[in-house]
Amino acid sequence: MSITFINLFDVPAGTDEEFMRFWSSVNEYMRAKPGYLSHRMHRSLAPEARYRYANVVQWESPEAWEAAHDDGFRALVTAPDLPEFTSVPTLFEVIHAGSVEA
Amino acid sequence: MSITFINLFDVPAGTDEEFMRFWSSVNEYMRAKPGYLSHRMHRSLAPEARYRYANVVQWESPEAWEAAHDDGFRALVTAPDLPEFTSVPTLFEVIHAGSVEA
């Protein structure tokens, strides 16, 4: 079962560049992992949004997603010079879908 | 510019059926609107997730999305017998994307 990982980021104003540098390093690492399928990283149109960044990622399975969070990942996200932000990471399954063509 | 609307839902345990009935009625209404492109509605794998439902919707433009929130929409979301839940609705633009084929 392919799954969707949505990670919502709470990024303080003024730290966007630093945050995106950090996020890019993690993204580069994760997309090389077995089971990674695709991602779309989003920035909110409104600067006052509750979550200003949202990454929506497709993985082959919950197991592949878990396995990707290995020692290399942990080293990236515990580096001492990280920007200050919090995130809400959640694994989802699609339960309903449609498009204008359907 | 096509945009992504992400709506996060905080649905109390035990109200899923009622919530999905409500959500389906709004979804049916919105997907008939000009500018609607596609949606994927997600449920979290873990029952203790901060947001147990997340709808990710593509619209042609912020203007189309705004225009779709008309009187008919407001009537649906202010009906007296609605389930109790809160949501975090946010308009996003995609700033980075990739896939395993790329």
What keyword list fits this structure?
alpha+beta; 4 strands; 28% helix
What topology emerges from the helices and strands here?
2 copies of one chain form a homodimer.
Chain A: E1 3-10, H1 16-30, E2 36-44, E3 53-59, H2 62-68, H3 71-77, E4 86-99
Antiparallel strand pairs in A: 1-3, 1-4, 2-3
> What would you call the shape of chain A?
flat
- How far apart the termini of chain A lie comes to 22 Å
Q: Walk across the major sheet of chain A and give the strand order.
A: 2-3-1-4
CATH C-level label of chain A: Alpha Beta
Q: Tell me about the biggest sheet of chain A?
A: 4 strands, antiparallel
Here the CATH topology of chain A equals Alpha-Beta Plaits
Spatial extent as radius of gyration of chain A? 15 Å
- Percent of residues in β-strands of chain A: 35-45%
Given helix and strand content, the structural type of chain A is alpha+beta
Major interchain interface with per-chain residue totals: A-B, 36 and 36 residues
Low-confidence stretches of chain A: none
Number of helices of chain A: 3
The CATH level-2 architecture of chain A is identified as 2-Layer Sandwich
Q: Which quaternary structure do these chains form? A: homodimer
Mean pLDDT figure of chain A: 95
What is the total tally of β strands of chain A? Answer: 4
Helix content of chain A: 25-40%
Count structural domains of chain A: 1
Give the SSE order of chain A as H and E letters: EHEEHHE
